[in-house]
Amino acid sequence: MSQDKTKEVATPALGRRKFLNTAAIASLGTLVACNEKPGSAAASASSASAAGHAASSASHLKPGELDTYYGLWSGGHTGDMRVLGLPSGREIHRIPCFVPDALVGWGVTNESKKIMGTKADGSLKYTVADSHHTHASYKDGNYDGRYAWINDKINSRIARIRLDYFVCDKITQLPNVQGFHGIFPDKRDPVDEKINYTTRVFCGGEFAIPMPNTGSEDSSKYRSMFSCVDAETMEVRWQVLIDGNCDLVATSYDGKLAATNQYNTEMGAHYEDMMSAERDACLFYNVARIEAAVKAGKFKTIGDSKVPVVDGTREANKDPKTALTAYVSVPKNPHGVNASPDGKYFICAGKLSPTGTVIDLSKVLDWFDGKSEKLDAAIVAEVELGLGPLHTAFDGRGNAYTTLFLDSQVVKWNVEAAIKFHAGDKNAKYVVDRLDVQYQPGHLNASQSETKAADGKYLAVGCKFSKDRFLPVGPLHPENEQMIDISGDKMVLMADHPVRGEPHDFIIFKRDLVRPKQVYDLNDFPNAIKDPKESGVVRNGKKVTVKMTSQAPAFSLREFTVKKGDEVTLILTNLDKIEDLTHGFAIPNHNVNFIVNPQETASVTFIAGNPGVYWCYCTHFCHALHLEMRTRMIVEA
Amino acid sequence: MSQDKTKEVATPALGRRKFLNTAAIASLGTLVACNEKPGSAAASASSASAAGHAASSASHLKPGELDTYYGLWSGGHTGDMRVLGLPSGREIHRIPCFVPDALVGWGVTNESKKIMGTKADGSLKYTVADSHHTHASYKDGNYDGRYAWINDKINSRIARIRLDYFVCDKITQLPNVQGFHGIFPDKRDPVDEKINYTTRVFCGGEFAIPMPNTGSEDSSKYRSMFSCVDAETMEVRWQVLIDGNCDLVATSYDGKLAATNQYNTEMGAHYEDMMSAERDACLFYNVARIEAAVKAGKFKTIGDSKVPVVDGTREANKDPKTALTAYVSVPKNPHGVNASPDGKYFICAGKLSPTGTVIDLSKVLDWFDGKSEKLDAAIVAEVELGLGPLHTAFDGRGNAYTTLFLDSQVVKWNVEAAIKFHAGDKNAKYVVDRLDVQYQPGHLNASQSETKAADGKYLAVGCKFSKDRFLPVGPLHPENEQMIDISGDKMVLMADHPVRGEPHDFIIFKRDLVRPKQVYDLNDFPNAIKDPKESGVVRNGKKVTVKMTSQAPAFSLREFTVKKGDEVTLILTNLDKIEDLTHGFAIPNHNVNFIVNPQETASVTFIAGNPGVYWCYCTHFCHALHLEMRTRMIVEA
Fold this sequence. Notes:
- The structure is a homodimer.
- By secondary structure, chain A is mostly beta strands.
- Chain A has a domain at 522-636: Cupredoxins -  blue copper proteins (Immunoglobulin-like).
- In chain A, 10% of the residues lie in helices and 39% in strands.
- In chain A, strands 8-9-10-11-15 form a five-stranded mixed beta sheet, covered by helices on one side. In chain A, strands 30, 31, 32, 34 and 37 form a five-stranded mixed beta sheet that branches. A four-stranded antiparallel beta sheet of chain A has the order 3-2-1-29, with no helix packed on it.
- The longest helix of chain A is centred in the first third of the chain and has 9 residues, at 13-21.
- Chain A starts with a helix and ends with a strand.
- The interface between A and B is large, with 167 and 167 residues.
């Protein structure tokens, strides 16, 4: 059944590219002209296959059937994290992080405001964000279900998500960083064998700025910053001053190396300058050496920040014996760097070059160890994949899957065959399959792809343009997340899912790797009202504390009285213990609404308004008498 | 295939109810005891049917296939409107209304702040909301694709959505209303035959308050308010002072009647008082008479509001010859009032009574016209349906579908058979089918159900609890929207969809009833920068205007300079004309991010921060050189 449809979509290559050119590559004419599609990539798209119908059905769960994988998705400029079930692609949850969320009262409750950060007047420091990448904590090369992290590019913040309750518990703003882009936790310690789990999170700084950022000097003197955040304390441990603009971050399975793919090593301020050089870099960080340098006091600090900064610029790291960083050369404005699940390679995609570059990590370590003279000897393959290669995922069977933004395709290619081809074996057929996607894919990821347990079952692709794939809803189109079955030789498109812009990266892992709790522990909240009898109003001058509990269908206080202008702090504990029995609490005209999940405590602080009666009501459907679940706030003159 | 699964779910009635009781009806024991399930409703649940597999497949579109229906969904306390495609249940769009939205910059741009409403200091008046009900404008008894409206219960606001661009264009706050709940547009004018389309929107006020709300007097003297808003100007035309708490609103196809289902006609302040009486009311409004009274000056105004208020209390409307309102008696705390597509009946569900009440509109008009002595003679059926009946939808073939909150079922029943049964024909079998849903359903609606063109194809049910239906994601469960095929005799469950709490009401209509535009008209924006040459910085003392355009992959200004403390207004016009080519604009550390769709203009005003370089960048993926699409804001001391 799905064959018919995909045949319609897979128009001949030339016509298709002409169509695509009208949108995403407008005014990129010269670039396209000088990057003609390589011969090796000319195999026709093979989206239709005999397995089509079966694969399509696989993503369509029957009512009540549970998904087998979780997906953690960056929310883009909604500033949150999305939790999906896969293969259905259903969004089960959104976790507010950087941006207020009116459903849960994130940015409304005192507890969430403390995590988000406030200005002197108590209002939120930021209400916008741009989250791109999310990755989770590791143990022994697989996810351990403790934490996930996510970035905010606009305001250079990193948020941590607790994967027991699926909530954000800490946010750190990085000093001396603008455009915090890529993010990746380490997988083990580079020195201590016993630490076989994540203790650091690496953060790539994209925009180059004056250091410190107080003037507007010559842009060629601007630099970017690579940061290491402590996974537990969420404090910034150290930073590295670098050349070029970080896009993504990857970490090695042995804990020794992190890398960022760097574009604009030209240090240009205008886009044509940023793409003037033919090659940029995959920039490697020698984690143990950097930490030794910091320990030895070989750092400076910048501006008001106390964070140690070591010098990782190209100029300062020419000697391999002492180098903290290594700039492996990769073609033109690379986009994406991904670690293969066998632990051997990092792969950079060319973006403005039609190539994928395979870097052998053992050879990078050889260079640091003085065993290899030429750093670029670590490049074991650089092969043509198609136009606009961006990101790469893996199936654990030796194949890589790379998005081709300009070609609107996913290309499946074999890494060892690519290495053979690069070594001179022109008979090595490294391109295994191509699949048209709809349209202009950015990130992609496969089930368990970023772990040693990559299982090559499902591939999700985030397509930036949906164009004609969904009913029209005005000028703002959804993006199109497509699910692909990669269990066979041929990729098979399973389903289209519309998604609010603009999610970027995501990870997909087996459902048994997390063990969420569904009811809170009353004792986790120091301000919990453990007994309805503790309810009441306590006045201390103009400051008033209102203590209340909820048990369907009533709040413990039937009414409470405050005075106009009082600073009221209302503490609400939900004493209902039954899973899924959440209550809400709204106060008309006082800009208050928040929820309390079973056994949760939350508080809000507000100034009582004009005299009158205000019906505070339960906003989260709880009970047959939900509409009747209210309390009256009486404000006296 | 779906048979096996539904069999598992449909456990015997008693065991199932025991299970359900643990959650939503905790502490409602006595209520359940006094409302034992009626004999007529004892037919076993029939979720499994031979049509099961086919129906299930129908909701599973193949990649690239378009939905055939739109759904407009209230967003609940996310304060927005959701746009779904059906039968797939995919969310294609969210339209920000009452609450800021970091994706589009709603609440960030000057244009959206003007619609939302600001305080004297320019900050938003409200950032929380609770939207429940959404309905669209009519012509000749079907949707005409002009507008939809949606309520905010917390702050008594009504928002209008333009269905050409799928954006909110006006918000009005209702005076003297707390807990604005139900909402419904009229379907034609009650007097002027030529006006066969929507010109009024009726708004039900739920919470009773002192009028004016300045004190805390005896709660038995509190009253609620029913409001009429002009569909074009969005000004409040008139209000009616009433007894009881409005839940939903319905309007007749002839334009003559509106109605609200009223609970708490006891005017109690505590939940046990609110359910003390055995019967409440379906409250009818005689629209022509109310407008004649307003025209004749028979009104007062309340507090600061200039809106004419007529007296619609029970006491003041005993004489049918002059009555503006009519309180038809319905059982205990009714929930939901729905107009049948044949134009004949309004149906109220009993909530705390296991009944549905069918009211014959012609007989209500007879009472107003002095042709009927007893108002309650308009009740042509009052039949037992099951426990916790809430809302009713229709298939256009004479059948009604009512959610049973406590029974976690949808009951399908035949309206004319119910009328016969009520008239004494005890052989009339009015219950046609029952289907278990998962779990505790609130609103439901069927395709085209609220129009004369009800087509009985799909039924969506908003289940308030999802419990075990999706992968666990911590204490806050999603709700479960279920799609049901109602085209045959038996209802067939098609699919489960998780949804972020807490949507309430929704409408479903054929896709050809709206004609969205996908590119804006440059001329619709008075401040549009129509030519990149108009770009630049204009200073007027401390006020600075920055004019800029976007065309992938560049902004028209490469950099711009302002001074610390300047009040900067930045105007950005997206000159890209290609559908789906949206750009974003973020300024680090200045809390600015917003999008401009093709040919759209938006502006932001902010205070320039500390001296330094700020890379403003495109946040909405647009082009292969998207990362390079930036401009530098240089802030001087």
